[in-house]
């Protein structure tokens, strides 16, 4: 198992902004941070490696059969569990300038480390989306359960932490810094990072602020050895990747552009950041130094391609096969987009 997320599966009802010509809501849309991170990892994992993507779906009494079929078609290592209650559902109302309001329509089913099966516990990487204090609790419990199930000599897992937006405040800065040593990567978006330091970007993106704020986290130390990374998801500006090396001279940092340079191709940005982290995680796990980029920058390349697929439509990207029987998503091969993006970023298409 290469990847496991503790993010949730949610069935979304999506309502367009008031200015939209068609006010018809879209119902029963597959969503949730866990789902998007799983599909981000799955995009970069054609069968049989698709089975190495682990996630949990609690199927309530109202779970639509057609969604079950879609999930099965992805051929992942999903754990489908019956739930004697309604499936977790959410209401999404869009305003102008991509503003999104969200509320739960049914009781949410939050996942814990105790929900993980022995197979999921064996994952090489874990995606967490939670508060700082819950992050520490989850990492400690995951480690405890892995030692119980896998033994004390099991290889160490990679922890990728996505802070929840409402906990990205100056009041939570101390707790956030405390959580850093428990994870390998922290990945807020640029607005969440700014809010953590009491800053707002306003009408324009402030790249210097991102660099400065990420540096403050990095200086505190990410990971046990303080060599982890800060990966800031910057929406239409791409992402910023900063990693502390064994010494100051070995630090590395850079901005990477978004895959979709034409913003008109972005239909719904919801889930793009979660999808990025799924792709990023498997990029870390499968890193090949021969690609020429530092490990976290290479992983961000994978994540950026995954995010591009996630935001081209409302809901999940569409899986199909081309005339040669090869897997495509939204009508394109993932490896073609990887080759194209690598060429744009590095000047070469492959090693």
Structural class comes to alpha/beta
The radius of gyration is: 19 Å
> What spatial form do the alpha-carbon principal axes imply?
globular
Order of helices and strands: EEEHEEHEEEHEHEHEHHEEEHHEEH
How far apart are the termini? 26 Å
**How many strands?**
16
Number of helices: 10
Largest beta sheet, briefly? 8 strands, mixed
Q: Which spans have pLDDT < 50 for at least 5 consecutive residues?
A: none
On the 0-100 scale, what is the average pLDDT?
A: 93
How are the secondary structure elements laid out?
Blueprint: E1 3-5, E2 10-15, E3 26-31, H1 33-43, E4 53-54, E5 56-59, H2 65-73, E6 79-82, E7 89-94, E8 100-104, H3 118-121, E9 125-130, H4 132-150, E10 158-163, H5 173-180, E11 185-186, H6 190-196, H7 207-220, E12 229-233, E13 239-243, E14 252-256, H8 272-285, H9 295-310, E15 319-321, E16 327-329, H10 334-346
Parallel strand pairs: 1-4, 1-9, 2-7, 5-6, 9-10, 10-11, 11-12
Antiparallel strand pairs: 2-3, 7-8, 12-13, 13-14, 15-16
Helix pairs in contact: 1-8, 1-9, 4-5, 8-9, 9-10
Textual characterization of the structure:
This protein is an alpha/beta fold. The chain is 33% helix and 20% strand. The protein has helices at residues 33-43, 65-73, 118-121, 132-150, 173-180, 190-196, 207-220, 272-285, 295-310, 334-346; strands spanning 3-5, 10-15, 26-31, 53-54, 56-59, 79-82, 89-94, 100-104, 125-130, 158-163, 185-186, 229-233, 239-243, 252-256, 319-321, 327-329. Strands 4-1-9-10-11-12-13-14 form an 8-stranded mixed beta sheet, sandwiched between helices. A 4-stranded mixed beta sheet has the order 3-2-7-8. Helix 9 crosses helix 10 (334-346). The two termini are 26 Å apart.
């Amino acid at each position: 198992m290469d990847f496991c997320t503790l993010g949730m599966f949610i069935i979304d009802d999506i309502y367009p902004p008031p200015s939209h010509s068609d006010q018809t809501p879209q119902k029963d849309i597959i969503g949730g941070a866990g789902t998007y991170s799983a599909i981000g990892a799955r995009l970069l994992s054609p069968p049989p490696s698709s089975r190495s993507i682990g996630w949990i779906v609690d199927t309530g009494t109202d779970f639509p059969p057609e969604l079950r079929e879609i999930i099965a078609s992805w051929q992942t290592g999903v754990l489908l569990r019956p739930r004697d209650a309604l499936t977790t559902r959410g209401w999404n109302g869009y305003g102008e300038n991509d503003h999104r309001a969200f509320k739960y329509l049914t009781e949410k089913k939050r996942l814990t480390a105790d929900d993980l099966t022995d197979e999921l516990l064996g994952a090489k990487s874990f995606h967490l989306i939670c508060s700082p204090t819950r992050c520490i609790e989850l990492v400690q419990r995951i480690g405890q359960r892995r030692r119980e199930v896998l033994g004390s000599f099991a290889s160490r897992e990679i922890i990728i932490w996505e802070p929840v937006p409402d906990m990205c405040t100056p009041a939570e800065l101390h707790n956030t810094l405390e959580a850093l040593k428990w994870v390998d990567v922290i990945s807020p978006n640029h607005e969440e990072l700014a809010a953590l330091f009491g800053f707002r970007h306003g009408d324009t993106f402030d790249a210097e602020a991102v660099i400065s704020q990420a540096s403050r986290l990095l200086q505190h130390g990410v990971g046990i050895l303080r060599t982890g990374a800060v990966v800031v998801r910057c929406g239409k500006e791409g992402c910023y990747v900063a990693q502390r090396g064994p010494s100051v001279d070995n630090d590395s940092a850079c901005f990477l552009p978004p895959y979709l340079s034409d913003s008109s191709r972005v239909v719904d940005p919801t889930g793009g950041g979660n999808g990025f982290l799924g792709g990023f995680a498997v990029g870390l796990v499968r890193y090949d130094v021969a690609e020429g980029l530092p490990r976290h920058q290479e992983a961000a390349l994978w994540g950026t391609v995954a995010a591009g697929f996630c935001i081209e439509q409302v809901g999940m990207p569409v899986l199909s096969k081309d005339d040669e029987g090869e897997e495509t998503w939204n009508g394109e091969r993932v490896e073609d987009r990887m080759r194209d993006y690598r060429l744009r970023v590095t000047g070469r298409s492959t090693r």
